[in-house]
Amino acid sequence: MAAQYKFTLQRGKTDLKDVTIAAGSAEAQSDTVSVNIDVTSMNRMDALMLLEAIENYILRAPWPPL
Q1: What is the pTM of this model?
Q2: E-only strand ranges, 13-63
Q3: Which helix (H) or strand (E) holds 51?
Q4: N or C: which end of the chain has fewer CB within 10 A?
Q5: CB 42 within 8 A of CB 59
Q6: pLDDT tens for each residue of 16-47
Q7: How buried is residue 56: exposed, middle or buried, by Cβ count under 10 Å (0-12/13-18/19+)?
């Protein structure tokens, strides 16, 4: 079984140090990325900024995550 990771970042926080990593849940298929966004009080730009910050974290942090 492959390792799964969950990257979490709250709205308004965009620093690499603000990204938290936890154990992810197994998807129905392998090689899958899922994104959950609570859009209750978040606009499209907020969501895109958070995704960009997580992308930056993945690019700069050790891989696979520790």
Answers
A1: 0.78
A2: 20-23
A3: helix 44-60
A4: N
A5: no
A6: 899 998 888 877 567 778 888 888 888 999 99
A7: middle
